[in-house]
Write a structure and sequence with these properties.
The structure is a homodimer. By secondary structure, chain A is an all-alpha fold. The first copy, chain A, is built from 5 helices and 2 strands, in the order H-H-H-E-E-H-H. Chain A is globular, with a radius of gyration of 16 Å.
C-alpha cells in the first residue's frame, strides 16, 4: 500500500473490527486507490499495526476475497485482482435502502443539517464513482 | 400508530433486531409521522406483531427514550414527546461520515449506479428534513 494504509479501528463502534477493516479497504478498492496487482500488507503486520488479533484481519481479507477483490494464494499474501462489474441483487438494493434510511434518519435526529449531509454525500459519490458519473 | 406500523425485522441482517426497530421508529419520528402525543403500541403487542421477544421491543423503546423521543411512564405505555433540536457532537459527525462512506462504497461495489443512489438519497433527505431545507 502507498505509505501506510490509513485504516482505523473504532473500538467503541458497534460494527465488528473485521467489518470496519473490510469496509475501509473496500472504499479504497472502489475508489481505485488499491489497483489490481497491489499487494496488501501481510495479515500479521496489519494486525500489529491496528492492534487487533490476526484472525480479525484474516477475516476482513477473506470477506473481500469472497467479494472478488482479492486473491489470497498462500505464500503470496493478499493481492488485489481485476474484478468484474457487478449487478446488484434485489437483496442488495433493499439492504442499501434500509441502511441509508436508518443512517440519514440518525443524522437528522442528531441535528446534522441537510446541507452538511448532502455535501458529504456528493464528495463521496464523486470519489467512489470516479469517471463513472455518466 | 396510524393503521398498523409498517415495521419489518430482517432476520438475515447483521443489525440486531432491537436496533432495526429503533432505526425504523426513529425515521418515522424524524419525519414527523409519529408526532408528540402519539402513543406507540404496547411492547407486548408490537413484539407479537413482529415475532420477537418483548425485551427486544422494550430495548428499542428504551433506546429512543434515552434519545429524548419517548416518555415511558409505567402504565401509560410509550408516548412520543416534544424533543429539543440537537446539536451533533464531534463523535456523531465522525460516526456518520464513516458509516456513510462504508455504506456508499458497498453500494458502488455491489454495482448500484451513482444516479440510483443519488436519487434515493435526495428522496430521503426531503422526507426527513421536511420543511427544514435551509
Amino acid at each position: 500500500m502507498p505509505a501506510q494504509p490509513i485504516l482505523r479501528i473504532d473500538l467503541a463502534s458497534a460494527v465488528p473490527a473485521y467489518a470496519q477493516i473490510a469496509a475501509q479497504l473496500r472504499a479504497l478498492l472502489v475508489a481505485g486507490e488499491l489497483p489490481p496487482g497491489r499487494r496488501l500488507p501481510p495479515v500479521r503486520q496489519l494486525a500489529l499495526d491496528l492492534g487487533v488479533h490476526h484472525n480479525t484481519v484474516a477475516l476482513a481479507y477473506r470477506t473481500l476475497a469472497d467479494e472478488g477483490w482479492l486473491d489470497l494464494r498462500r505464500g503470496r499474501g493478499a493481492v488485489v485482482i481485476e474484478r468484474r462489474e457487478q449487478r446488484p441483487s434485489a437483496r442488495e438494493k433493499t439492504d442499501f435502502s434500509r441502511r441509508l434510511e436508518a443512517l440519514v434518519a440518525k443524522a437528522a435526529a442528531d441535528g446534522l443539517s441537510p446541507q452538511a449531509v448532502a455535501k458529504e454525500f456528493e464528495a463521496l459519490a464523486s470519489k467512489l464513482w470516479k469517471g463513472k458519473k455518466s
